[in-house]
Structure formats: structure tokens, C-alpha cells
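User: Second chain of the day. Same drill as before.
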Amino acid sequence: MSVLVNKNSRVIVQGFTGTEGTFHAGQMIEYGTNVVGGVTPGKGGSEHLGKPVFDTVKDAVTKTGADVTIIFVPPAFAADAIMEAADAGIKVIIAITEGIPVKDMMLAKKYIKSKNVTLVGPNCPGVITPGEAKVGIMPGFVFKKGTIGIVSKSGTLTYEAADQIVKAGLGITTAIGIGGDPIIGTPTKDAVEMLMNDPETEAIVMIGEIGGNYEPVAARWIKENGNKKPVVGFIAGQTAPAGRRMGHAGAIIGGAEDTAAAKMAIMRECGIHVVESPAEIGETMLKVLKKK
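Assistant: Same format as last time:
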């Protein structure tokens, strides 16, 4: 099994004919993802990358049966694109766009609450189930199929963790890049919960960053639920000064639990195998699984 996306996912691309949409949709198709079309208002009825283009998400869903969308729409219009997808009956919305205004995301998140939809992102690398579907911007060749789930707030560290896992002779069920913005659709705890409930996922890599409380919330949930599967954790930003934003919009130390040291301490207390460097993820996971 897998979570969120698989070989049966019917994927559309919002912002299909733009530069980013074109490049990454091409990579997704090449990977073997079942891309069934795309949406660019005003270009409905045309064809792009050998796939049909629609004016609206509703048209695309009606004509193709799409159930997953990936969004490459510019920041000013991306929240509308998220709400349009939710309205059209899409089940999994993956928003890649960076720089969506916080106010827009507040409205979009509130709007989709009443819909039966999972939003991943924004400002994320996407989701990949190796060998089945790549719905995102990650380098597909790094990921190999296996039994380790990955949840990461950082895009590049998602790829690093996957590389470490594969080099250790293991593989990945699904990797979820949740995004680093202050307001995202799927916080760490929700993504971890999906993988905990996936029968094929044997263990989880959880990568966080300074800022916010997603990792402490996830760590406490893992402990409260009996540490059902081993988790290897890493927090980026260990040398970041307080009050300065580092990389992602959400990576800024505000409260006592926002620092890397505080998050790592909480994770350890909750039974997570915390590593000091991303270079230790693969070997630590191997040791943990051998003990298990």
C-alpha cells in the first residue's frame, strides 16, 4: 500500500502550460505518473505534452475522473486554485507554490475544512510513492520502493533522507514533503498518522525545522499512541539565532519549543531516535530496525 498517491491516482496539473507546470509535469509523466490532463484558464480544448487542457478543474474532473491535483499557479491566485480544486471534488491537493500570502492561506484552509480533501503544502516538494506516482518536484531517481515512510518539512532534506535510506539498503513506501510555510494543509502529526496507519510502512523518518510546534505535537502523539512503529527524527536549524527567519517562511524561533534543541529534547523524551546530522539517518534506521 501507500498513502495519498499511487499508481491508480488520476492526476491533473493546475498551471499546466506555464514554465514550471510544463517542466515538472513532463518529469512526472516520464516517471510514470498517471497525469490525465491539466488546467489553464483560456486554453481549454487544446493539448499540451500530449494531454488535454481544460479551462476549469470541474471540467477536468468531469472529463478525466481526476482525483489528485498538483498546483503550479502563481502566489496571487494559488489559494483560489486550492479552493477551486476542493469544490470540484478533488481528494488530494498538492500545492507547490511558494509565497502564497498568509491571509489567503487562512481563508483557503478554512474553506476546505468542510470538504473531504487532503491538502499537502503549500511551498512543498510534493508526495512520491516510488515506482508508482511522483506528484511533485523531487528527483524521482533518488527514491526506491521499500518499507520506510518519510515526513519532512524541508524539500532538500526529503531527498537527502531518501538517499540515506536507499544507501542503507532500505526503501520508501511514501515520502511526504509537508511544506515550510506558517499555514499548511497537512501538519507533521497528520502525515505521521497516515504512515502509522499504512500496513506496508515499517518505520518512519520525521524531519522538522525550527519554528512552530508541529514536531512536538507529532512526537507527543506518537508516544500517546504507544510508539507503534520506530521513528528516526532530525531537526534542521540547530545553529539558527532566535528571531531570524531561516529559509522557509515558517522557520523562525518564536517560543521556547521552537528551537532545534527543545524540539530534539521533546522528541527524545517521546521515544524517537533523534540524530544530530542528516548524514546519520540511514545508518540509524538500519540499527533501529535490527533491534526491532
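Residues 19-31 form the longest helix (13 residues).

User: Great, on to the next one.
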